[in-house]
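Please decode residue identities from the backbone states below.
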């Protein structure tokens, strides 16, 4: 969606530049005028390159953090299951609830909208983990070992719940809208000057079309990486799939 809008803006800017070129007097497009236009374009081009670099770094950081969060969440779920298994058969119901939580997570996706809301008879994920914690609190440890395992299980389940709320709070961050709008304006200005200086022949039009498509594709990839749980470039749920295979073992 965003990449398509950028492509439309750049194509429109190029077309406007070519239309203006046809209506300007010849002395407005003299060699001296073109030199000034190129100098001004170089400044805007440098700023656009810096802005794109910052957006790429921000999107890559968001994607890398999401990958770490996915692996950490899977590791904590496995740790919680193993701690409950060590406690004894009294935690069988809590372990079953934990497995159901992961099954729902895999079927509903890893986004704030799907995990925080109820779906049909399925509860929101935060209610699932709270049910696990409720079962853990209701346990009656028989000795110091079970008491320590109960405390540890509650600690780890708290970290699993914290991961969920971190996802909810950061789920709508994405790219900074104002920064992206300014970048699109700069890029549109660049392509307008390209159209202003270029003769409208098929070769030039093809090159400008490919350039606009390339820039729009770059913005699309940046936007996709900034939302790492949805879209084409998304974080793999393989760690959770692997965790599912180990849950519930004796």
């Amino acid at each position: 969606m965003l990449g398509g809008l950028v492509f439309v803006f750049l194509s429109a800017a190029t077309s406007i530049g070519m239309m203006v070129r046809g209506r300007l007097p010849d002395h407005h497009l003299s060699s001296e005028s073109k030199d000034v236009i190129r100098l001004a374009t170089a400044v805007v081009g440098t700023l656009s390159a810096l802005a794109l670099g910052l957006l790429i770094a921000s999107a890559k950081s968001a994607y890398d953090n999401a990958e770490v969060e996915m692996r950490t969440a899977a590791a904590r779920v496995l740790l919680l299951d193993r701690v409950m298994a060590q406690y004894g058969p009294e935690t069988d119901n809590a372990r079953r609830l934990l497995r159901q939580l992961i099954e729902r997570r895999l079927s509903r996706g890893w986004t704030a909208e799907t995990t925080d809301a109820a779906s049909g008879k399925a509860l929101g994920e935060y209610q699932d983990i709270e049910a696990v914690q409720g079962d853990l609190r209701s346990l009656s440890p028989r000795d110091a070992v079970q008491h320590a395992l109960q405390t540890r299980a509650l600690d780890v389940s708290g970290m699993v719940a914290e991961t969920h709320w971190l996802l909810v709070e950061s789920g709508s961050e994405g790219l900074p809208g104002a920064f992206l709008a300014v970048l699109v304006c700069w890029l549109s200005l660049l392509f307008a000057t390209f159209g202003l200086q270029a003769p409208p022949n098929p070769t030039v039009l093809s090159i400008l079309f490919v350039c606009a498509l390339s820039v729009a594709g770059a913005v699309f990839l940046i936007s996709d990486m900034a939302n790492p749980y949805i879209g084409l470039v998304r974080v793999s749920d393989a760690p959770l799939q692997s965790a599912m295979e180990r849950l519930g073992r004796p």
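Observation: Confidence is low (pLDDT under 50) at residues 118-123.
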